[in-house]
Design a protein that fits this description.
Layout: E1 3-6, E2 25-30, H1 32-35, E3 47-51, E4 59-61, H2 63-66, E5 84-90, E6 96-97, H3 99-106, E7 116-120, E8 139-140, H4 142-151, E9 155-158, H5 172-179, E10 183-186, E11 197-202, E12 213-215, E13 219-222
Parallel strand pairs: 5-7, 6-8, 7-9, 9-10
Antiparallel strand pairs: 1-13, 2-3, 4-10, 4-12, 5-11, 11-13
């Protein structure tokens, strides 16, 4: 039997994902008490309401997140975000994850086309604390981005606050990967529960017109 592994951060009211972005507000649109006057005795329902910034929890970036007029959430093909062959890069303890580390971990000649490359830094242990958004958070170095773009995976994910160095306002990782049509998943969790390969990865967003980023339930399936 296969085993499912959650790789996302559950969302709750007030949760801070990225410093400076407000947490979600979760309320009732229709409470159970209010619903009881609308239905038969002993019959009640709850309908929730959420005010949510798209960059909350674990989320997927599309090219429209970085480039005006490029493909948004309605343009995401399922075969680029669901049931992908997964490859894990153990970058624990690294800050700027470079091309040399990727080549050593994945093999310079490995075919990455249509794969999900997930970079495990261990930084997700800080999620929900001030340390998570610190200046020394891990990221993909510029040469690593160039290395990946040459090999065209379907998706690249990381368990850090940003796939870019937060101090580099040119955002080379977002720019290079999304310009190449490679989707980005940030704020992954529990990547240390995965093997280096042999798993399948999914991170599917809803189809929302006009938005370039949204929360996903990222998970892996292990044989």
């Amino acid at each position: 039997m296969s085993r499912f592994v959650e790789l996302n951060h559950p969302i709750h009211a007030g949760q801070v994902t990225y410093p400076g972005i407000p947490g979600p507000q979760i309320t009732d649109y229709l409470s159970r008490d209010d619903s009881r006057g609308r239905y038969a005795p002993d019959t009640d329902f709850q309908i929730g309401r959420i005010d949510l910034v798209a960059n909350t929890g674990t989320y997927l970036d599309t090219p429209a997140h970085r480039f005006e007029g490029r493909g948004d959430l309605t343009d995401v093909p399922l075969d680029r975000v669901a049931d992908l062959p997964g490859l894990l890069v153990d970058a624990t303890g690294e800050r700027g994850v470079g091309a040399a580390l990727l080549a050593k971990a994945l093999g310079d000649g490995t075919d990455l086309a249509d794969a999900a490359v997930l970079v495990c830094t261990g930084w997700s242990r800080h999620f929900g604390t001030p340390a998570y958004g610190a200046a020394d958070a891990p990221f993909l170095a510029r040469d690593a981005v160039e290395w990946l773009v040459q090999r065209r995976p379907a998706l690249v994910g990381i368990d850090s606050v940003n796939i870019d160095d937060v101090a580099d306002l040119t955002r080379p990782a977002h720019t290079g990967l999304l310009d190449a049509g490679i989707y980005v998943v940030e704020h992954l969790a529990d990547l240390d529960r995965l093997p280096l390969d042999g798993f399948r990865f999914s991170a599917v967003p809803p189809r929302i017109a006009g938005m370039g980023t949204f929360t996903v339930r990222a998970f892996a399936v292990l044989p």
